[in-house]
Amino acid sequence: MSDLIEGYLGKRVDGTKSRMPALLDRWQSITGLILGLFIIGHMFFTSSILLGKEAMYAETKLFEGSLFLSEPQPALVSLAATFIFIVFIVHAGLAMRKFPYKYREYKMLKTHSAHLGHIDTTLWMVQAATGFGMFFLGSAHLWMMVAEPDRIGPYASADRIYSDHFGILYALLIALVVLHAMVGLYRLTMKWGFTVMSNPREGRKRNKAIMWGAILFFSLLAYSALATYWSIGKSHAKDYGERYVPQSQMMSGGES
Ligand code: HEM
Known about the structure:
mainly alpha, binds protoporphyrin IX containing FE
């Protein structure tokens, strides 16, 4: 146990080196990669509302297993959200090792970063700050997805965003998550040498340009989707709680 704590902190009391920090670092990268790729998919999925309520409804049912089950099961979404929540907590726990613990350490880091004028050091600080905020806002959202997977759909999501005021939480979370995920993926490519190829300087420049492009693209996509949910929620406020009925079920009287 003491080996684990010493490894987590990266120091052994007897002054010898431990392999644990390298192992934990690798797991921080692996969990970060899973979350980063998940977020890219997630941003496209939630943006299906830009294609209309029918598209978002069909996609929701797809995630509930409509392709292979006779009756869609929201519990499948809950299972996926539980897995992502666990990866999210492990990732945050591993990242916390590198946070400055004392105000003095934080001041030193800030001065160091300002002296270096090194954009990648500043990006690390952006990641630490956005990660800290995401831990609270992301946990509230994830718990909702674990506990109420049946409350997802064109009207259910829009009601949550407008009438239940989750729109404010999402507006903040989008900025944090887009920055954190894209900076994180950029840092992963640099750290493990992916796509840097023979010319590291050029590779860094190109990867950084892709990172800024992705930040812009996913911010536009996510805020457009949020505005669409908000406007649907606003017109649906008088019928709060009523679920969307797809055109195909209008005649048979089914609902979601
Ligand atoms: C399997 C896990 C997840 C599921 C099932 C899920 C599902 C959803 C759904 C259905 C929405 C639409 C709004 C709503 O119904 O409340 C949404 C929005 C959002 N989610 Fe997730 N989510 C998951 C994980 C995450 C994670 C890990 C993050 C980041 C920490 C995140 C960040 C966001 C953000 C920022 C929005 C607003 C996006 C927008 O309006 O375009 N989600 N999510």
